[in-house]
Specification:
alpha/beta; 11 strands
């Protein structure tokens, strides 16, 4: 299998006036195309920080990162933005919807920045996504008119609408009921099967974690992750 992520972090530091927090010490991760990886661990050990590094949002760390065969420290700002829009799909907890836009326009927002990738988008792709996760009735609503679960599903739709090579999901089912939780997971894994999309999911739900190919446990004060490949 083709390796698409090769990450080595010596240290990631968060500083405040009174303290300094060091996480992801001597951490390394290799991911092959089409893998489904779950990351678990208690709050504060660096799970979301890891997703931000993988997703080229956070570059303030000591280490090296090769993504899709390219050293990311050589990428210009415009290239980073293009990669984040076309190659990486984000379903992050802090992914705020724009309150002045309808849910439909929020979901289609990545298409405005897609450049040539926009030509590959088909209207039926949009219909397929919104029908699969059951949000057609809220498309004309604004985010403030929607429940937390509805907004979570809209954020998910926006993250996958471009059919990215990599999807980074931070607790994608945390605010959902059982039915919609299953809808999200089913669609995520369907993309993995049909498009060989690489899935990296941070979750506290061990049942969902164990449905991935590999579960990586992050513990406080540890120097590395312990990955377990499921048989």
């Amino acid at each position: 299998m083709t390796k698409i992520i090769d990450l080595s972090v010596k240290e990631k530091i968060y500083k405040s006036k009174k303290s300094k927090l060091s996480i992801l010490n001597n951490f390394s991760l290799e991911v092959a195309a089409g893998e489904k990886i779950a990351i678990v661990g208690e709050s504060g050990v660096g799970k979301s920080s890891l997703l931000n590094i993988i997703g080229l949002i956070d570059r303030d760390y000591n280490g090296e990162y090769t993504l899709l065969g390219s050293a990311t420290n050589n990428l210009h700002t415009s290239e980073l933005a293009q990669w984040r829009n076309q190659k990486i799909g984000f379903v992050l907890q802090e992914s705020a919807l724009i309150n002045s836009l309808t849910i439909e326009d929020n979901i289609k927002l990545p298409l405005l920045y897609a450049g040539s990738g926009k030509k590959e988008f088909k209207p039926e792709d949009f219909e397929s996504v919104i029908n699969a996760i059951g949000i057609k009735p809220i498309l004309k609503k604004k985010p403030l008119e929607c429940s937390g679960g509805e907004k979570a599903r809209a954020v998910f739709a926006r993250g996958i609408i471009m059919k990215p090579q990599i999807i980074l999901a931070d607790e994608p089912t945390a605010s959902l009921d059982m039915e919609n939780r299953e809808r999200i997971v089913t669609l995520l894994f369907k993309m993995n099967r049909e498009f060989n999309t690489t899935i990296i999911t941070v979750t506290h739900d061990l049942e969902i974690a164990n449905r991935h190919d590999r579960v990586i446990h992050l513990e406080s004060n540890s120097k590395c992750f312990a990955g377990v490949m499921k048989q």
